[in-house]
Specification:
Layout (H helix, E strand, L loop, with lengths): L3 H5 L4 H22 L7 H8 L3 H7 L3 H18 L10 H29 L4 H21 L1 H7 L6 H9 L2 H10 L4 H16 L7
Helix pairs in contact: 2-3, 2-5, 3-4, 5-6, 5-7, 6-7, 6-11, 9-11
Length: 206
């Protein structure tokens, strides 16, 4: 038996308008962050979306909730563009591919991530969003370098896995790009060098 929602989708104009309005609100929030506003106000979002202020809060309980759903939407879009890195490729090729993939992702979400860093301590939702992203990346890292971890980690010591995961984290990327003021190519070169060193390649290709 179909649900009420299923029956509404093709015919109910109010439902479609609601979906479009919610999407417009999320798009407005993302656009403002992309322009450098790391804490968009409800009024700013409403003005950008071309709707009334009250409409924002008809769709989202508060601005942290909007931040969370906009973040989910953005990170899903970014992840869909990233090609998986097979674990059976030569190690140097895996390092090159995963470094390039992370660089693409981090460049796309850096302003959003900085917005998250500002708000994380105020919102469990935003904290959970960051935590989910970090755990997903860590799982990817474990999969891509599984052969090396199996060969090099003779015990249950997680140190090597943690070190590799840290090198490939957004925090490291932000440190290189913002604090060290490296361009994208130089930041990737630094990460590749670190990965080659950690994973034991005798002649690293950085």
């Amino acid at each position: 038996m179909s649900s009420v929602l299923d029956r509404m989708v093709p015919t109910d104009g109010r439902w479609l308008r609601s979906v479009r309005t919610r999407a417009a609100i999320i798009d407005a929030w993302v656009e403002l962050v992309d322009e450098g506003d790391l804490a968009p106000t409800a009024k700013g979002v409403a003005d950008r979306a071309g709707i009334g202020l009250r409409t924002v809060f008809q769709h989202f309980s508060d601005m942290h909730s909007l931040h969370f759903y906009a973040g989910e939407h953005l990170t899903n879009l970014v992840r869909q563009r990233l090609a998986p890195v097979p674990a059976d490729l030569p190690l140097d090729e895996r390092i090159d591919r995963l470094t390039a993939s992370r660089a693409e992702a981090w460049e796309a979400i850096t302003l959003f991530r900085r917005a998250c860093e500002r708000q994380e301590w105020l919102s469990q939702e935003i904290h959970d969003l960051i935590d989910c992203w970090e755990r997903t990346d860590a799982a990817c890292t474990l999969r891509v370098f599984a052969p090396e971890f199996e060969a090099m980690c003779a015990t249950d010591d997680p140190t090597l896995k943690q070190a590799v995961d840290a090198v490939l984290s957004w925090s490291t990327w932000n440190q290189l790009r913002q604090r060290r003021q490296l361009d994208c190519d130089d930041a990737q070169a630094a990460i590749r060098f670190a990965l080659h060193s950690l994973l034991g390649i005798n002649e690293p290709r950085w």
